[in-house]
Amino acid sequence: MYLTALTFALAGIAFAGMMFWLGRLLSGRLDTEPARRPFESGADPQVHAWNRFHTRYFYYTLIFLLFDMEMVYMYPWAVVFMEVGWKAFMEMGMFITILLLGILYAWREKAFKWD
Amino acid sequence: MGLTAPRWAKLRRFAFARPRAFPVLGWGGTNLWHTFLDTAPVDLSRAPHDADLLVLAGEIPESWVNCLLALFETLTLPRLALWLQPGWPCTAPAKIPLGFTMAHGTLADTDWTAVSERLIDPQNPASTPLLPDEPPAPWRGQGDHGQGGKGMMGGKPYGRPMAMTMEDRDNLALDDVPTFLGPHFPGLPSGLELELRLQGDRIRQCQGLHNGFPERPFEPEAIRYGGSGNAPALQALTGKPVTVAELERARLAHHLGWMADFLELAGLHGLAEGLRRHRNSTDEKVIEDLLTAAQGITLRRLGQGIGIIDRDGALRWNLRGPVARASGVAVDARSEDPAYRDLGFAIHTETAGDVWARFRVRTEECRQSIRLLKRAGDAMTSAPEGPRGGFIKEQNGLTTPTAANLTALNEGLTGLEWYEAVLFIVSLDLDMEEAALR
Predict the structure, then answer these.
(1) CA B338 from centre of chain
(2) CB of B311 within 8 A of CB of B329?
(3) Contact A43/B417, CB-based, under 8 Å?
(4) Please, which residues have CB within 8 angstroms of residue B221's CB and are 6 or more apart in sequence?
(5) For chain B, which terminal residue's Cβ has fewer other Cβ atoms within 10 angstroms, N or C?
(6) What single string gives the DSSP state of each residue in A58-114?
(7) A39 in contact with B at a CB cutoff of 8 Å?
(8) pLDDT digits over B116-171, tens only?
(9) Which residue of B120, B177, B265, B420 to mutate against A (max A Cβ within 10 Å)?
(10) Secondary structure letter of residue B336 according to DSSP
(11) Best A20, A40, A48, A54 residue to mutate vs chain B (most B CBs within 10 Å)
């Protein structure tokens, strides 16, 4: 089994390497400083491209985390679901409904806006 | 590097059978470029790193040459520069090694195999570096790790300094990135240069607005420089009446061409292609189908509520043409013209004043032009109303609609997100060539 995995890994690396090599061989590019200049629609860039900006969409991330954790609770639930039956279904339904109210609240607070 | 040996010629021919062209539009360049796209077996490219051909269309102002040389240097190999010569005598752009010069009106007879042979020819003078291999500023070996920087902000990593910080709208100190828009971004008006300050993808401030085209006095023979679609209106301005049909045909072709560019930028390539192909048509059914398709849900969702200019703003900044009419200001030189009055011309206005309203005004004007064309016969008019608005001759020269509408641009950009800014600029339909006329 390990041999198969190793073979696949090596084949993958070899393939990716070949693509890089082919790209270098086929593409004709100039490797000078003026040729590497980023395109800023004609003008010369004044500052380096590294810059810090506000990730205003961080609400997205928080809400995503919330629902990601909800999925974690579903794993133990799924194990006992067949045993417990309808009762488990209703309980999970209630849990998800409460979280859904959270989505509606976040929506009202404009948390799903990009900026 | 790159398979330049003769035995690979077939592969190279196959790979570059349909080269990608990056346009730079000078005086009279817009029409030349559109004709080029119609006839040449090329695809449009939006970035020089992705392009094979640099197409210099029209008369290139001398002040652009250094900038264009730097731009040409960023094209990947193989590369070639073409010059589309305008219909009047002018000097060829300097410094850039021109692979081909195509005289006005000869595009249809061009031997495209010769062009692509020259493109893939490893001996062509464009395939060697044109500029010395120097970084924008010395940085190698400086700083703690040789990265060119000292600490967080100091130094010049890779030859360029870091952006300075500036308070943003919730009082955080965030990088304030000086960004230039134009003068050579396909899809935006050629020659428009904006100095923007960006925080993230939002424009904090527009710090400068320049016209890359040098000013040109408006004499009767300068009509050819007036930008696309303006020739009949400029002729009317010089006192020589034109036919209503001529004026309306120019407006229709211009609006359809503008819509094609707008849709191309919005990512609706098929529709843009259709509009570009039929831009010189006056067939009611064909155009009506295209307009109906263009007014679909995508553009409405994209353009509604963006770049709003209210009626007060339009009046205060003295806006003209479709931009003013989309904000509910009924200005149109044609409404005071007896010929148009006889044809039952009425100004179409919208009230929303956003990108979508400006688009709708133009679609409605296309329909209106078709109706007027049917009834016009050989009626003559002297209304100097171009597709972007009316030209006004004053004591100290000419004021063009673009020059008037540029005020709205300067005011309206602050606080827009990047995609909104691009839509806003395009919706104003600016022509810097026209704005350079005095």
Answers:
(1) 34
(2) yes
(3) no
(4) none
(5) N
(6) HHHHHHHHHHHHHHHHHHHHHHHHHHHTHHHHHHHHHHHHHHHHHHHHHHHTTTT--
(7) yes
(8) 889 988 888 888 899 999 888 888 887 777 777 776 666 787 888 888 888 888 78
(9) B177
(10) G
(11) A48
The CA-atom distances, in angstroms, between A46 and each of A61, B163, B176, B183, B261 are: 33, 9, 12, 15, 29
Q: What is the pLDDT of residues A55-113, one digit of tens each?
A: 888 888 888 888 888 888 889 999 999 999 899 999 999 998 998 898 899 889 888 87
Question: Do the chains contact at A34 and B133, CB–CB below 8 Å?
Answer: yes
Look at the block and give the residue holding tokens 């010369």: A44
Angle, to 10 degrees, between the axis of helix B418-427 and the axis of helix B401-412? Answer: 160
Asked if the Cβ–Cβ distance from B188 to A41 is below 8 Å, we say yes
Closest Cβ opposite residue A27 in set B2, B47, B185: B2
What is the 8-class DSSP label of residue B27?
B
Token pair belonging to A112: 């799903």
What residues contact residue B84 under an 8 Å CB cut-off, 6+ apart? B29, B32, B33, B36, B55, B56, B57, B58, B102, B104, B107
Instruction: With beta carbons less than 8 A apart as the criterion, state whether A41 and B183 touch.
Output: yes
Based on the number of CB atoms within 10 Å of its own CB, is B277 exposed (0-12), middle (13-18) or buried (19 or more)?
middle
Distance between CA B131 and CA B137 in Å, rounded? Answer: 15
For chains A and B, count residue pairs whose Cβ atoms are closer than 8 Å: 127
With b for 16 or more beta-carbon neighbours within 10 A and e for fewer, the B303-334 pattern comes to beebbbbeeebbeebebbbbbbbbbbbebbbb
Pair B300, B356: CB distance under 8 Å: yes
pLDDT in tens, B202-251: 899 999 899 999 998 888 777 888 888 888 999 988 888 899 999 999 99
* B153 interface with A at CB cutoff 8 Å: no
* Residue in chain B nearest A23 by alpha carbon: B2
- For an interface test with A, the pick among B14, B24, B49 (most A C-beta atoms closer than 10 Å) comes out as B49
Q: Do B77 and A28 touch (CB under 8 A)?
A: yes
pLDDT tens-digit map of B36-45: 988 899 998 8
Residues whose CB falls within 8 Å of the CB of residue B111, separated by 6 or more in sequence, listed in order:
none
Sign, Cα dihedral of B416, B421, B424, B429:
positive
pLDDT in tens, A2-46: 999 999 999 999 999 999 888 777 777 788 888 888 888 888 888
Q: Determine the Cα–Cα distance for residues A77 and A36; give it in Å rounded to an integer.
A: 55
CB contact under 8 A, A47 and B201: no
Distance (Å, whole) CA A48 – CA B148? 11
- All residues of chain A having their beta carbon less than 8 Å from the beta carbon of residue B201 are 53, 115
**Amino acid code (one letter) for B63:** S
How far does chain B reach from its first CA to its final CA, in angstroms?
Answer: 50
Closest partner residue to A42 (CB to CB) among B67, B76, B177 is: B67
Calculate the CA A43 to chain-centre distance: 34
